[in-house]
Amino acid sequence: MIAEHILIVDDDVFLCKVLCYQLSVRKYHCEFVETSTAALSRLQQKPLPDLILLDYSLRPQDLNGLQLCSKIKAVCDRPVVMLTANDELRTIVSCLDAGADQYIVKPYDIEELSARVRAVLRQRESRSTKVDAAGAIGLLEWEALQLDPLQRTLSADGHEVALSEKELAVLSLLMRSPGTAVKRSDLYSIVYGRDFDSMNRAMDVLVGRARKKLKALTENYKIRSIRGSGYVLQPVRARKTTTEGTSS
Amino acid sequence: MTTHAQAFFDSAHLPRSLELDDWEILEDFYLTFLHQIHDFLSLIEGATSHLSIEEQRHHAHKLGSSCRTVGAPTLAGMFETLENLCRNENTDQQRAALLATIANIGEATRDQVALHLAHAGRT
Predict the structure, then answer these.
(1) In the predicted model, is pLDDT for residue A70 greater than 70?
(2) Looking at beta carbons, which residues of chain B come within 8 Å of A107?
(3) How far apart are the C-alpha atoms of A34 and A39, rounded to whole Å?
(4) Minimal Cα distance from B14: which residue of A?
(5) What is the ipTM of this complex?
(6) Which one of A46, A162, B103, B110 has the largest count of C-beta atoms within 10 Å of its C-beta?
(7) Domains along chain A?
(8) What confidence tens digit (pLDDT) does each residue in B40-90 have?
(9) Three-state DSSP class for B88?
């Protein structure tokens, strides 16, 4: 069995070393970086870590943990567990809003921390299996849009954009039910492999990214938010027709 | 100095909490801790105005945690107090006094960790 790889981002080298040791005893392969620049640079290289442990409080001159978490989520599809100094509601909410998959309050208990790491890695594994299952179906086409799960690309009119694993999962689900709203909770539980958490804005962030990719590709389709229902993928012309029909 | 007569460092704490008896690993942890304390003491030596309040808070936050982990609870408590003081801007005098104490206890703690390194490394 290959050891899962954890990247720790914290400017406290002493605690990084101690945490690396504690996790290595539990059969994880660990490395650490001290700055946001080093973290983002590391995430440009393969193999990517399976999980990132990110401290909320980096150096004052650096990005803060929340900013870095958002950037990490924008460049790679890996779970982030944030280490915070307190369990105040606003801290926890801000971590989850920034895209963190989990948080743990310091001083941490290593057994709790490793249990949370295991939980997040299990969720990721479960999600990957579902995405792989979707990928096994092959090329998905709807109108001018083509989604290639194997290449992880979305194409239209001879152009294509690369997708992250989660963006692929979102677009795949929306393209299977074009014109029909997919519930936010259903989308969340399938993409993230766990029950919907209404406080977690990760789904909105993810759909926002999928929207941008779609818009970069074509202006003819869009992902609309339907209040109380979820998200729907539809041609822009269909929406205009509906609006015109309603107003006339 | 009287501060040096007191025990500010519990050398059994880290091996016990990590269930670790590999001296090479422990030595690396202690050396890393010594570097951190040394760097901070250098920063607060003389004029403390080199550090902004936010920088003081950040160092205090990190070092408080490191001290607690390594087995230096007295210094850890002082850093935690400093961190709390940094949340209030009208604490210049209190922080200056505390930093002076931290410099004193920090040196004593550093010496005790260094002594442990020297002794344990020989055995």
Answers:
(1) yes
(2) 65, 68-69
(3) 8
(4) A18
(5) 0.92
(6) B110
(7) 5-131 (3.40.50.2300), 138-247 (1.10.10.10)
(8) 999 888 655 578 899 999 999 999 999 999 999 999 999 999 999 999 888
(9) coil
